[in-house]
Amino acid sequence: MEEVHGGAFGTHTNGHDLARKILRAGYYWIKMESNCYQYVKRCMKCQMYADNIHMEPSTLHNLTSLWPFSMWGLDMISPIEPKPSNGHRFILAAINYFTKWVEAASYTNVTKSLVTKFIKRDIICRYDLPAHIIIDNGTNLNNKMMTELCEQFKIKHHNSTPYRSKMNRVVEAANKNIKKIHDMLPYVLHGYRTLVRMSTGATPYSFVYGTEVVLPVEVKIPSLRVLAEGEVDEFEWVQSRLDQLNLIEEKRLTAIYHG
């Protein structure tokens, strides 16, 4: 519990999500979930920095994407206070509406050219040409360079207006997690990508790679799948990995009907 909750790549998640993450790693014991709840309640960092919620959550109505990487939401988190040691007070974040996969990078300042570079490098070159990009009305995100980029690659450009803020709620939900630990951004992204999202019933990592991530704790205390993987030869391992990738489309189709 200690390692998964707050160790390497630990995200200080709630008790239920902590239990699910431990279970997916291949560990189980009686009263595991209740133990996780109690452990989180006693976690000093969670007590100090966790959100205090005093009202019932509202129902989310997200825009949906029919295929992975076809629709992205783009937003800027700023300013980060207190100012971090590297001077990066702005975080540019993009989330894929289908897989809920998040890409983010921190900067000292977010310029128009930097935004278009981020889209080319972190979205187009890594995944695919998106069909849709949804952004807010900020001038550094919504400008002539962005329009020209979308025209060049035949991307449909949508604005999230102040009167319809729910339109980009998926991005805002991700930003809420990202902005908490800006100095540990790669670890925050890893934690977010490996948690089950309620809207899909699966982790973003599994939608992208076809398998669940191997957590650091599984190496320290070998889980069943780590032990089993060490017993198979290279050909069997490659065949198993190919099977996982071939079945990834079924996972993605299931996610469409889950929401």
Automatic annotation (TrEMBL):
The Integrase catalytic domain, residue ranges = 64-230
Superkingdom of this protein's organism: Eukaryota
List the GO molecular function terms. Answer: nucleic acid binding
Which SUPFAM superfamilies would you find in this protein's record? Ribonuclease H-like (SSF53098)
Do you know which Pfam families this protein is assigned to? Answer: Integrase_H2C2 (PF17921), rve (PF00665)
| One BP term from GO | DNA integration
UniProt xrefs under InterPro entries: Integrase_cat-core, Integrase_H2C2, RNaseH-like_sf, RNaseH_sf
Official protein name in the record: Retrovirus-related Pol polyprotein
Q: What gene makes this protein?
A: POL
